[in-house]
Amino acid sequence: MAHVNEHYLKLAGAYLFPEIARRVKACADRRPDVADRIIRCGIGDVPGPIVPAVASAMHDAIDELASIETFRGYPPATGYDFLREAIAEHDFRSRGAPIDDDEIFVSDGSKGDCGHFLEILGPNNIVGLPDPVYPVYVDTNVMAGRTGSALEGGGYEGLRTLPATVENGFVPEPPDEHVDIAYLCFPNNPTGSMIDRPRLEAWVRWANEHDAIILYDAAYADFIRDPSKPRSIFEIPGARTCAVEFRSFSKHGAFTGVRCGYTVVPKELEGRSADREGISLHSLWTRRWTTRANGVSWPVQCGAAALYTPDGRDQTAEVVTRYMDHARLLADGCRSLGWQVHGGEDAPFVWTSSPGGEDSWSLFERILEEAAIVVTPGVGFGRMGEGFIRISAFNTRERIDEVVDRLGNLGG
Ligand SMILES: *Cc1c(COP(=O)(O)O)cnc(C)c1O
Fold first, then answer.
1. Distance from C-alpha of 327 to C-alpha of 56, rounded to nearest angstrom
2. Tens of pLDDT along 245-272?
3. DSSP at 156
4. 267 Cα–ligand 1 center, Å
5. Last residue of a domain, one of 294, 309, 324
6. Considering the domain boundaries, does residue 1 fall inside one?
7. 225 CA distance to ligand 1 middle (Å)
8. Is 340 helix (H, G, I), strand (E, B) or coil?
């Protein structure tokens, strides 16, 4: 019998979303009055639809594939030049971030990239992860054999924790102990926090001084409202020698089902070989793509490029504004209950706790029973998320209004 990858067996069971589903079902079975009116503010998907500029570009692209004159076969493994150029120009160079077209690697989404990137990094790196955290970073490290066993109460042996707390505004500080790879996510999922320029500068300085790499997840960059906040880590001088950035069209572009994102790897960024030689991660990542994949489909890349056209930008900006209005309504609603509210200003998530000091699951149950609203318990994102819940702004305006209304009728 073939042997399995033992590292997969260390994974603590996928707990959070199945447990939410189990509790929602139990409540619905018991309370038909709740079952009929449940509103889900938990999952990170968007209501859509893709904007007209994208739909039209994808239709045209499919017609091209259907004609022998304009048919296209395999795309370049790391993305068509027209899309890489649009990305590098609009998301980076126009904002003062010096990124070349060939430093953009187009992919089928950044969740995959976050995990795949570990393939070009050695197994003995010390990895620092925020708590609370997007669980993908943790589980992909476990699968890649970068941890020991699961710890009771959450986490894994061998990983270092970068605490995100009320005190630090849910922005972790660079660690005192040695870390080779640090994950950061801003705007943050799940806490909705956003890092400011001085604190991101401090991280870049720390990484360069300690020869560490920052894996920077900016999937929600387009939701930043405050013009003084950095949209990309590459707006910070020095980031080209210490950072990789993951970006996604999923949320602002409603691409969760279309599937497209990209990773930025600067040519100066190096890792170290066993004989202490500097090795270009850009060339290893290029090699990884050309060997393992044949790129992203023509209609999808045409759709993604349409996000950067004047129409695409206007239409997308409108969608983002709508979500951020939702976030504000949700935050105001929670505040009027006397709850402590975080996030929701530069990110489409509100992160909140009740003054009663209820634990995450109690608050989850109470909101479900009394208001028929499904939120996400903060403790599901790490032990430091205990006491909090995450409410997502990805919903229709009607549902958001209803959610705010129902929250207003909650006791305390
Ligand atoms: C949604 C999300 C992504 C994007 O994932 P895709 O695979 O591009 O859909 C990445 N990081 C975080 C934190 C997210 O919430």
1. 29
2. 999 999 999 999 999 999 999 999 999 9
3. B
4. 24
5. 309
6. no
7. 19
8. strand
